[in-house]
Design a protein that fits this description.
single chain; alpha/beta; Rossmann fold; Dihydrodipicolinate Reductase, domain 2; 2 domains; ten-stranded mixed beta sheet; 11 helices; 18 strands; about 30% helix; globular; binds NADPH dihydro-nicotinamide-adenine-dinucleotide phosphate
Length: about 450
């Protein structure tokens, strides 16, 4: 493990990620951890002076004024980080205990990593890489090779902020600390697993990025496959980086599109004009900056299988979309029907019970088929509910907490990053060839009417 870093150096300090997520999350983290002290440095192409940088940081810390006392706001370097000379100068200024955060557009990150080749970085540096990490398996592999030419794998933190979501960590606790789950957490008892992230938000001005990515790459390729790995992994010996990431990586290696058939196992759609809550939205194709001919999907659903002894045959349905009727972010494990329902019980349960984790507020609901109403032999459904808290701890707060401690357990390892691209590749190819129709749904609806409910 790297020694505890104390300097956070943000490349791309004038960008959206920094101002909207990184700095406010740092403020919240420091407000919760009064003992922590951070030196903050920044770089970007904006010609800011030290006073402007101080002001940007102070604005981001407006809600946590006390926390600002725990930050030493260092210099802001106006530099093109793709320029070898500028990068060499920047690297020579790095001290021990630095986290270098690449909050840059992906192409700029690649170029900056290229410019760093051959330079000597501090021995304990930690490099934080944002998503998307590469744009296919090959480019992710090349980027990994360039990173490992610079530092050891344990010094690379590939951010997937979903892994910092408290619900996912709660899911691990519930799954691994209770004896009741492990015996049934397998194909013999599980009918299906659905991992769903429906948003009411639409494009929100992000056409430049989103129109090239779409729902599958934006959500399924990264975040939701990581959730799948946490749900499906064998219980690790520890939650240390090696054990946890070995367990996740083993699942991802065994994961592929169901039946090897991307046409039968995937669906895509994009929204037409409609109303979400009190907002009237134009069709995605008419949004500013969208190239309608690109056929980018705003809703994607892909069914995977995990081909190992534990999960063979169980469909893992991953779905995510924008401009939908309701926000639903949840993991649902549906159990198989019991082998025999005694004659005399009225009602036909469609499954053998269902466990659902929902995010924000974090909840767990175990749906059971029970008797005990007016007719003691009639089955009905009842949910056992548990509140797991508001889930307010920002996911980037968790990311920064880990990073600043030099921990990489909740980050994506090199092999996982490559595998997540490998897993979706057949679907990408089928979609590019037009083998899967691009369906439509009205903004504010639950999705295309013809799609079966998952
Ligand atoms: P922006 O375009 O808003 O910001 C990029 C930053 O990089 C700016 O500060 C820009 O500086 C700087 N920059 C660009 N080129 C150079 C260069 N050659 N040398 C030095 N600095 C440069 O992007 P985002 O902040 O939105 O995204 C950054 C990364 O974070 C991306 O990988 C994105 O996918 C990821 N991400 C973003 C999220 C978000 O909500 N924004 C959420 C999750 C991930 P300047 O403005 O001065 O040119």
């Amino acid at each position: 493990m790297a020694s505890t870093p104390t300097t956070l150096f943000i490349l791309g300090a004038s960008g959206d990620l920094t101002s909207r997520l990184l700095l406010p999350s740092l403020a919240a983290l420091l407000a919760r951890q009064p003992q922590r002290r951070i030196a903050l440095r920044g770089a970007g192409t904006e010609d800011w002076d030290a006073a402007k940088w101080q002001q940007i940081v102070a604005t981001a810390f407006a809600d946590s004024a006390d926390a600002l006392d725990r930050v030493t706001v260092g210099d802001y370097v106006a530099a093109d980080v793709t320029d070898r000379g500028a990068v060499a100068q920047l690297v020579s200024s790095l001290g021990p205990g630095t986290v270098l955060y690449f909050a840059l557009p992906p192409a700029v990150t690649h170029a900056a990593i290229d410019a760093m080749q051959g330079l000597e970085l501090p021995a304990d540096i930690l490099l934080a890489m944002e998503k998307p990490f590469g744009d296919d398996e090959q480019s992710a592999r090349e980027l990994n090779e360039k990173l490992t030419a610079l530092v050891a794998e344990q010094q690379v933190f590939r951010v997937d902020h979903f892994l910092g979501r408290s619900t996912l960590l709660n899911l691990l606790g519930v799954r691994l600390a209770n004896r009741i789950w492990e015996p049934v957490w397998a194909a013999e008892h599980v009918e299906s697993v659905c991992i769903r992230f429906d948003e009411t938000l639409a494009l929100e001005g992000r056409a430049r990025y989103y129109d090239k990515a779409g729902a599958m790459i934006d959500m399924i390729q990264s975040h939701l496959l990581q959730v799948l790995a946490l749900v499906a992994m064998d219980p690790p010996a520890t939650l240390g980086e090696r054990d946890l990431r070995d367990a996740k990586a083993a699942v991802l290696r065994a994961t592929r599109v169901r039946g090897g058939d991307p046409v039968a196992s995937s669906k895509r759609a994009r929204y037409t004009a409609g109303t979400v809550g009190d907002r009237t939205l134009p069709a995605y194709a008419d949004e500013e900056g969208v190239d309608a001919a690109r056929g980018t999907e705003t809703l994607a659903e892909v069914t995977f299988e995990v081909s190992n002894d534990r999960w063979e045959g169980v469909p893992f349905i991953l779905r995510s979309g924008k401009a939908l009727e309701a926000k639903r972010s949840e993991v649902t494990v549906t159990f198989k029907q019991v082998r025999h329902l005694p004659l005399g019980l009225a009602g036909e349960p469609v499954d053998g019970g269902r466990l659902r984790f929902s995010l924000g507020p974090d909840r767990m609901a175990l749906r059971l088929h029970v008797t005990g109403g007016d007719d003691p032999f009639a089955l009905r459904d009842e949910d056992l509910l548990a509140d797991l808290g508001e889930g307010q701890r920002r996911s980037y707060e968790e990311v920064l907490d880990e990073l600043l401690d030099g921990e990489v357990a909740l980050s994506v390892r090199a092999d996982e990053a490559e595998d997540c691209w490998r897993i979706i590749q057949p679907v990408r190819e089928a979609w590019a060839k037009g083998e899967v129709p691009l369906d439509e749904y009205a903004a504010g609806s639950a999705g295309p009417e013809a799609w079966p409910e998952v």
